[in-house]
Specification:
single chain; alpha/beta; Rossmann fold; 6-stranded parallel sheet
Length: 224
C-alpha cells in the first residue's frame, strides 16, 4: 500500500504597514526629521500617510515634491539614504493593530506558515517587527529592497511563498498596491479595511474583507 501523500502546510503572507502595524506616526516623525535636516518645512500627518505603501524611493519623491523640490533632483539619494538610516533606529510610533497577536497565534496553532512581503526596506521592517515583538512569529521576511523589483510586481510574493514551502496561500494586505500584487500573482487576497487604502473597498479586487483580526483565522481556513 502506498503511503498517503504529505500535505503541504498552508501559508498566510502579510503586508506590513497598514496591515499588521500602524506605522504612519513613525513614518511621519522620521520624514519630518529628515526634511528638517535639509531645512525644509514639516508636512502634516495626513499628507505623509498618503505617501505610504510604494516603498521608500516613492516616499522620498513625494516628500520632495510636496516640499517644492525636484523629486528626481540631486539631493534625492542623500535624502533617501538619511531617511532609511533613521528609519532603522527611530521605531517609536509603530504600533500593532488590535487583535493581531491573537490572530497570528491562532494561525500558527492551526498549522499555517507565516511570512511578510513589504515594500518597506528590509532593515526598517526588521526593526519595526522587533519593536512590536513580532519578529520571531514569521518564518520569512522580504523587504522592498530585497529583490530587483517591488510590489505590485508579483515576484516578491512568489519568492516568500516558495520560502514557506509553496502550500495553499492567502495574501493579506490593506492597500491598492496589495490588491494589484495579489491580482498579478493570481493569489487569493484578504483586504484589511482599517489600513491605508484610498479606494473604496468595493472598487478593489479581493476575495475577502475584514475589519477585525478575530475574523482572519476563519478566512484563512477557507483558502486551504
Amino acid at each position: 500500500m502506498n503511503a498517503p501523500a504529505l500535505r503541504t502546510a498552508p501559508v498566510v503572507i502579510f503586508d506590513l504597514d497598514g496591515t499588521l502595524i500602524d506605522s504612519a506616526p513613525a513614518i511621519h516623525r522620521v520624514s519630518n526629521l529628515v526634511l528638517a535636516d535639509f531645512d525644509l518645512p514639516p508636512l502634516d500627518a495626513d499628507t505623509v500617510r498618503s505617501f505610504v505603501g510604494k516603498g521608500t524611493p516613492n516616499l522620498v519623491r513625494q516628500l520632495l515634491e510636496a516640499s517644492g523640490k525636484d523629486p528626481e533632483g540631486a539631493i534625492f539619494d542623500e535624502v533617501h539614504d538619511r531617511l532609511v538610516a533613521r528609519y532603522e533606529k527611530e521605531v517609536e510610533g509603530n504600533t500593532l493593530y488590535p487583535g493581531v497577536v491573537t490572530a497570528l497565534e491562532a494561525l500558527t496553532e492551526a498549522g499555517f506558515r507565516l511570512g511578510i512581503c513589504t515594500n518597506k526596506p528590509y532593515r526598517p521592517a526588521e526593526a519595526a517587527l522587533h519593536h512590536v515583538g513580532l519578529f520571531d512569529t514569521f518564518e520569512a521576511l522580504l523587504g522592498g529592497d530585497s529583490l530587483a523589483t517591488r510590489k505590485p510586481d508579483p515576484a516578491m510574493l512568489h519568492h516568500v511563498h516558495r520560502q514557506l514551502g509553496g502550500g495553499p496561500m492567502l495574501y493579506v494586505g490593506d492597500s491598492e498596491v496589495d490588491a494589484e500584487t495579489a491580482v498579478n500573482a493570481r493569489a487569493p487576497f484578504a483586504l484589511y479595511t482599517e489600513g491605508y487604502r484610498k479606494t473604496p473597498v468595493a472598487d478593489l479586487p479581493h476575495h475577502a474583507t475584514f475589519s477585525d483580526y478575530a475574523a482572519l483565522p476563519g478566512i484563512a481556513e477557507r483558502f486551504q
